[in-house]
Amino acid sequence: MESPFRTIIVPVDGSRYAAAAVRYGGQLAHALKAPLQLVHVFPASPREMLERLANRAERIAVSYMKREQFNAMRDASAQRAFEAAREALPKGQASAEEIIVPGEPASGLIAHAQLNEAPLIIMGRRGLGSFRELLLGSVSERVVHHASCPVTLMSDKGPDALPSVLVVPVDGSTQGNRAAVHAASIARITGARIKLVHVYPRSSDEIPGIGAGMTGMAGIAPEMEKRFADMGREAARIAFEGARAAMNDKGLKIEEIRDGGSIHEAILDAAAEEKDTSAIVMGRRGLSRMKEMLLGSVSQRVLHRAKCPVTLVS
């Protein structure tokens, strides 16, 4: 089956976070038969570097730097990053293309991705510190929010193998269904099992910011509890049906999980309970105002707490 991605893009900076992303990206590129690009983003000029430096001593040093010295620094930085990335590539992985991209880390990476057809960005979740943080830093959050392509974030302790379980939270939204389609396209090639997860308030108490006082309202609470349960079951049915239809679920191994309580905790639990390697694939944005209230910034909480790779899909 043809890969849904034409290019796997991994930003590298020589850190252990980048190495984990390279290992994972290399395995995925090999499985999907997609080309792998290792991208090192570096300031376009001494002036651009100067504008982003906070340390006074570094600013003084750069202010006296000649263009030849700057170019030598850029090349040395890229060489270190690419050498570390080559060492992290899985055995059997075909050689990757190495590209130096000028510019600010997040915007440079996003602009580069836009030059490629059907890209997937895979990057480390954390930054580094000092000068390295300037080069890559915690740009992952900005890339997640502004890139139009799917973005996979992971910790420095990435899995040794591709995930055999893909956890996909669904809520009936376009974003959730797109995440399901993304997961299905990978599962058809890797054979991974898909866990569709729908989380809903089991009672008024579980509505963030509202429920605490509702159950004490005389004459309302008993009816509301049953209504919430009925609404939750119906919402789950609609969400699962929509996701399956979007995925064209024929031939896929799919499990449906209905849960209540905290949405991000239910998603994390669904991934953590697996003995096999898992990954989370979820929509990047909220939905209607009501659903946004229920969902909140779930993706942010999942990203910050997940131990497994997390892919966000627009």
Summarize it.
The protein has helices at 16-32, 46-52, 56-63, 67-88, 105-114, 130-135, 140-146, 174-190, 221-247, 263-272, 289-295, 298-305, and strands at 7-11, 36-42, 97-102, 119-124, 151-154, 165-169, 193-200, 254-260, 278-283, 310-313. The chain is an alpha/beta fold.
Structure description:
Mean pLDDT is 84; it is low at 127-137, 286-290 and 292-296. α9 (221-247) links the parallel β7 (193-200) and β8 (254-260). It is elongated, with a radius of gyration of 22 Å. Helices cover 46% and strands 18% of the residues. α1 (16-32) crosses α4 and α5 (105-114) packs across α7. The protein starts with 6 loop residues before the first strand and ends with a strand. The chain folds into 2 domains: 7-154, Rossmann fold (3-Layer(aba) Sandwich), CATH 3.40.50; 165-313, HUPs (Rossmann fold), CATH 3.40.50. Strands 3-2-1-4-5-10-9-6-7-8 form a 10-stranded mixed β-sheet, sandwiched between helices. The protein is of the alpha/beta class. The chain has helices at residues 16-32, 46-52, 56-63, 67-88, 105-114, 130-135, 140-146, 174-190, 221-247, 263-272, 289-295, 298-305, and strands at residues 7-11, 36-42, 97-102, 119-124, 151-154, 165-169, 193-200, 254-260, 278-283, 310-313.
